Amino acid sequence: MTKRDGVRDPRHPDTEILHSGRDPEAQHGFVNPSVYRGSTVLFPTLDALEAYDQQTYRYGRHGTPTTAALEEALCQLEGGARCVLTPSGYQAVTTAILAFVKAGDHILMVDTVYQPTRKFCDAFLARLGVATTYYDPLIGEGIAGLVQENTRLVFTESPGSLTFEMQDIGAIAKAARARDIAVVMDNTWATGLYFRPLEHGVDVSINACTKYIVGHADAMLGAITANARTARAIEMSRLLLGGCPGSEETYLGLRGLRTLAVRLARHHKAGLEVAEWLAGRPEVARVLHPALASDPGHALWKAQYKGASGLFSIVLNPVPRAAVAAMLDGLELFGMGYSWGGYESLIVPFDPKTCRTATTWGDAGQALRLHIGLDDPRDLISDLDAGFTRLKSAA
Predict the structure, then answer these.
(1) What average pLDDT does range 80-109 have in this prediction?
(2) SS3 string of 45-57?
(3) Using an 8 Å Cβ cutoff, are 86 and 223 in contact?
(4) Is the pLDDT assigned to residue 292 strictly greater than 60?
(5) Where is this region: Disordered (predicted)?
């Protein structure tokens, strides 16, 4: 590290995530920050108590040195002005949306969004008098044609949940900014290491830290990183909604962040290896992975992203459900369970037709979402190969 005129040269993100958000000198030389467990914070004087906001830490729900450390590190990673933590990725989504809307407003929501986000819009926002229009993820600058007088927010998620369509984030953000509409992006798939939404015109980047930031399937955690123009709105939304992560979960997020670069590189490489093998299987109709050259969104991914994660989907050629069950039930290395981003490999079936309204899904075969963990990809391929043998026997 060198300095010129007191300004530090930029560091590579792989290095930055190792050093941001920690101060060994303030921790008696220990490398990692302490885990602060607490609710009550004592004030030294009546004047300090009555001033309240003039003390850095005031109450456990508002943050501790542990949460501040992770917020600082994630803010650096995403290139934001402010980051706040929430107890889950889903609460990060809901807190961010509620920061910008009130009764009578309208939002534009990508049709391929994470299903709980869709449910929040349809069941909760609708009850509050906020209308939602779902749009095709491939709309690009055409999003301008859907803007209404009361549109306050455009929500993006790229690649799309489950089906991995790539959005032209820059074009969408430019169209929204021209009308002074906030743009929020769920950036969990890539994290700030492989894509920095704020550099492409997005106002707020969301991470379900439960996934790759924590990285070990042992904690629930969310983060919202905002640019300067939206930071205050995000801070107030989190404050008013009362979201605060637990001390242990926050520390696990800090621990996981330090190894994010090496884990994501492994997920990227192994995921592509398995995806390429699956693309050659006769049982597979399509592989949905934007880092594959054959994927419709590959050009956008290559232009915008620095890497890919280990999460993608496939569509099987039509077979009876019993054949799919025979394949999945006998897998040894792939577990069947929700969430992803940990060291373990996962596989779950899903039906895209049940979670989209602005677009249609025409494939007849069963769709499967895979998360390629840190297993040796050769072992995963062997496990899947045996699964396809069972599938064919039961078809």
Answers:
(1) 98
(2) CHHHHHHCCCCCC
(3) yes
(4) yes
(5) 1-30
pLDDT at 7 over 80: no
Report which residue type is found at 159. P
CATH no. for 11-258: 3.40.640.10
Residue 345 has pLDDT above 70, yes or no: yes
Beta strands, E only, 246-389: 284-288, 311-316, 334-335, 345-350, 367-371
- For 354-390, b/e burial (b = at least 16 CB within 10 A) is ebbeebeeebebbbbbbbbbbbebeebbebbeebbeb
Provide the annotated active-site residues.
61, 114, 186, 211
Cis peptide before 10 (omega within 30 of 0): no
Q: Where are any strands of DSSP class E within the chain?
A: 3-4, 7-8, 82-86, 106-110, 131-135, 151-157, 182-186, 204-207, 222-226, 284-288, 311-316, 334-335, 345-350, 367-371
Of 206, 259, 215, which is closest to residue 80 (Cα–Cα)? 206
Q: What is the predicted pLDDT for the residue at 15? A: 80
CATH T-level assignment (fold) for domain 260-394: Aspartate Aminotransferase, domain 1 (3.90.1150)
Answer yes or no: is pLDDT of 366 > 70: yes
Q: What is the mean pLDDT of residues 329-337?
A: 97
Q: What is the domain partition of the chain in residue ranges?
A: 11-258, 260-394
